[in-house]
Amino acid sequence: MRVFVAGYDVMGKNMAGPGMRSFAIARFLSNHADVTLSCDESSGIESLSDKLNCVQDSDVLWDSTDYWSKYDVAIMAASQNLKVNLPDKFPVPLIVDIYDPYILENLELHSALKPSIRDYEYLRHLKALLEMLLMGDCFIVTNGRTRDFFTGMMASWGIINPITASGNKVNEYFLNIPFGIPDEPFNTVSEFSVGEIPDQIIESDYLILWAGGLWDWLDPLSLIESMPLIQKSCPNAKLLFMGYKHPNRHVPVMDMAMKCIDKAKKLKIYNSSVIFRDWTPFEERIPLLKRANLGVSLHKDHLETRYSFRTRLMDYIWAGIPMVISGGDFLSEELSKSGVAKIVPENDVDLIADIISGVLRESKPGSIDEKTEQGFESLRHQYRWDTVLTPLSERLKNIQKIDKDNYGIKFKELLMNFPVPRPPGIIEKGMEKIKKGLR
């Protein structure tokens, strides 16, 4: 079988969650099929796997029906058509990965924009998502919550209708594939890892690790504000943010990242007890995970929370790092029940400081109690990439195109008349520059 996987984001030395996910999918499927992975022309992804056929994004004829005839199936992110033009009728079975409900992230990300720009961005992204939902023949979700969210969305727009639901076909639409962890045991990998610990962190320090980025829908500010309180009981506590600049050069530094830096400077703890890295390369994160006493991930309580999947928590699971996290999402509830994480409320700086201080006083890197280790082991077995991706390889054996020309309603006509206004002037000028750069 010939499988095309469209890289969701930049891949190679520096990767964020979407890039890590598409690379993991392609690498796993390369054990079962002939896999082509499209990636950024400067990614260097070839050095991470010798089984993949890598092509540059610029060499893919995205809108050509003939181009896709050489593949049996394609796998793409739900946002793929925001980057490229795809055929109106995709000629081969298309699996759309909708693990990231990005339209909910955008509600927070675009909240500070001028109303005209905010509304344009919302409608543009919503229309693109609806087009991918119409185009897809199978959809990847992370858990029952995201499945319910997209089932409702597809039903309300007529994508799920009496014709497509007949014979219980809807159950064939969705694959539950969460984010995974490496198949190799962490202790084995960490023995041969490369990467340096920042000079500010010495052997006697307690290291609090924030493994992901500083995105606008997260709440790292409460963690920074808690640091002076934490240091009253744990004077040698240090906080490290592994990355505040997204590795994709097209993604600007978010407002939250600058707020965090400003807050740390105001509290006079910037790059002393609160340390910021531009971005930690993929392989170089391992020594930091091995050194960490505690992993933290805090977020705000909004719509995105319930349907999110905090991908960088998976590194904490892999490395066996106790966690202090926010609640409200599927994964936080599972980690709390497993006994590997403590949940803290939003914006309660005093309580966050108390709980983190308590965990640090009891912690030692690589040494946890038997019950907590059992919780980690159970989670590792459940979330290994080769475990979570097995349903995808099975689904490829009988994937077929769904005949969308027999829809009981004129959904395509609705979509063609979707009310996306002309972009505001500042966006329109920027889009013209981008188009000229691509010619």
Overall pLDDT confidence: 86
> Percent range for helical residues?
40-55%
Class from helix and strand fractions = alpha/beta
Strand content: 5-15%
Straight-line distance between termini: 33 Å
Q: What strand line-up does the widest sheet have? A: 3-2-1-4-5-6-7
- Report the CATH architecture of the largest domain: 3-Layer(aba) Sandwich
Number of strands: 13
**Largest sheet data:** 7 strands, parallel
Outline type: globular
CATH homologous superfamily of the largest domain?
Glycogen Phosphorylase B
Could you say how many structural domains there are in total? 2
Helix tally equals 19
Unreliable runs: 426-439
In CATH terms, what is the fold-level topology of the largest domain? Rossmann fold
Radius of gyration: 22 Å
CATH class of the largest domain: Alpha Beta
How would you characterize the overall build of this protein?
By secondary structure, this protein is α/β, with parallel strands linked by helices. The protein is 41% helix and 13% strand. The chain has two domains: 61-177 and 389-438, no CATH class; 186-385, Rossmann fold (3-Layer(aba) Sandwich), CATH 3.40.50. It has helices at residues 17-29, 65-68, 80-83, 102-109, 115-135, 144-156, 186-190, 220-233, 255-266, 285-291, 303-307, 313-319, 330-337, 349-362, 370-383, 385-388, 390-395, 411-416, 425-438, and strands at residues 2-6, 34-39, 53-56, 73-77, 94-97, 138-141, 174-176, 206-210, 237-241, 274-276, 294-297, 323-326, 341-344. The protein has a seven-stranded parallel sheet with strand order 3-2-1-4-5-6-7, sandwiched between helices. The chain has a six-stranded parallel sheet with strand order 10-9-8-11-12-13, with helices on both faces. Helix 8 (220-233) runs parallel beside helix 9 and helix 8 crosses helix 14 (349-362). Residues 426-439 have low confidence and may be disordered.
